[in-house]
Amino acid sequence: MRAERAQDAEPPPGTDATAGAEPPGRPEDAATRGGLDGLPRQGGRGEGAGRTPRAVVMLLHGGREAGLEAPPPWNLPGLRMRPFGRSIARATRGRDVRLTSVRYTHRGWNGAREDPLRDTSRALDAVAEEYGEVPVILVGHSMGGRAALRAAGHPLVRGVVGLAPWCPPGDPVTQLSGRSVVLLHSDRDHTTSPLASQTTATRARRAGARTCSVTIRGSDHAMLRRAPEWHRLTAELVTGLLGHGPLPPAVGTALALPPGTTGPEGNLDLDRITRGRP
């Protein structure tokens, strides 16, 4: 993965990346917030405590290949996930779905340390301790997508939505067996590889996962171009994987492919699967 330098810079005021975000320390309005919060380090109750949710959606933002420093308070990769959180919150309103995010201890993956994976695993353990056996959907961007895929073997995880995920060729996929995995990627991503997402989906299917990949043409790694479509599709996938609404028909068909399928059936194009839809 090339260094995500653009994601680590403070965004200019008024850009899409910061729309609706608040400076550190200023709480969002509860109605807008929709239950989105950060787990205190590795876990915790946060807003909505006292009621066991029926499901949890956990957001994992991007980062760097290496970096032992903590993410800064004004962290653009984290802010980038806010619109996804709002879309998911709207789509799951009234469903007793807890929306939360993982706060990383360190900024980078850091080789064999795999720091974001450790953070995600501890957050999942905290959810299990707090709420018991609730189904969890992991939604991760870039490095967070890699952490989501690697942590998916946790007993609570039912599915993964990877947003331009970082998928090194040697990463294991056996932990994805029995899970539903949908990987979204722009064909113009120059930071992580869209071909690697397709290959990972195929490898995971062979390992017993229900998988597909979706190409979002003309977008970018930061998901700013065609942003509404990223947000809308992610929310639709989350509700579909939780059984709270229908999946796009082509996605449902791809997830049902036999494990040995290696052809293009599992590699979808957003423009084709949404053609004719409102």
Provide a descriptive summary of the structure in words.
Residues 35-49 have a biased composition (Gly residues). Residues 269-278 have a biased composition (Basic and acidic residues). This protein has ten helices and seven strands. It has helices at residues 5-8, 30-33, 76-80, 82-91, 115-131, 143-151, 194-206, 227-241, 249-255, 270-273, and strands at 55-60, 97-101, 136-141, 157-163, 180-186, 210-216, 267-269. Strands 2-1-3-4-5-6-7 form a seven-stranded parallel sheet, with helices on both faces. The radius of gyration is 17 Å and the shape is globular. It has 278 residues and is an alpha/beta fold. 46% of the residues are buried.
Write the layout of secondary structure elements.
Blueprint: H1 5-8, H2 30-33, E1 55-60, H3 76-80, H4 82-91, E2 97-101, H5 115-131, E3 136-141, H6 143-151, E4 157-163, E5 180-186, H7 194-206, E6 210-216, H8 227-241, H9 249-255, E7 267-269, H10 270-273
Parallel strand pairs: 1-2, 1-3, 3-4, 4-5, 5-6, 6-7
Helix pairs in contact: 4-8, 5-6
Task: Describe this protein with a few key phrases.
278 residues, alpha/beta, 7-stranded parallel beta sheet, 10 helices, 7 strands, 15% strand, globular, AB_hydrolase_fold, Lysophospholipase, AB_hydrolase_1
Q: Calculate Rg over CA atoms.
A: 17 Å
The percent of residues in helical segments reads: 25-40%
What percentage of amino acids are in beta strands? 5-15%
Q: How confident overall, as mean pLDDT?
A: 84
Question: What is the 3D shape?
Answer: globular
- Helix/sheet category: alpha/beta
The tally of strands reads 7
How are the strands of the biggest sheet laid out side by side?
2-1-3-4-5-6-7
| Count of alpha/pi helices | 10
- Note poorly predicted spans: 4-49
Largest sheet: 7 strands, parallel
Question: What distance lies between the first and last C-alpha atoms, to the nearest angstrom?
Answer: 36 Å
Encode the helix/strand succession as letters: HHEHHEHEHEEHEHHEH
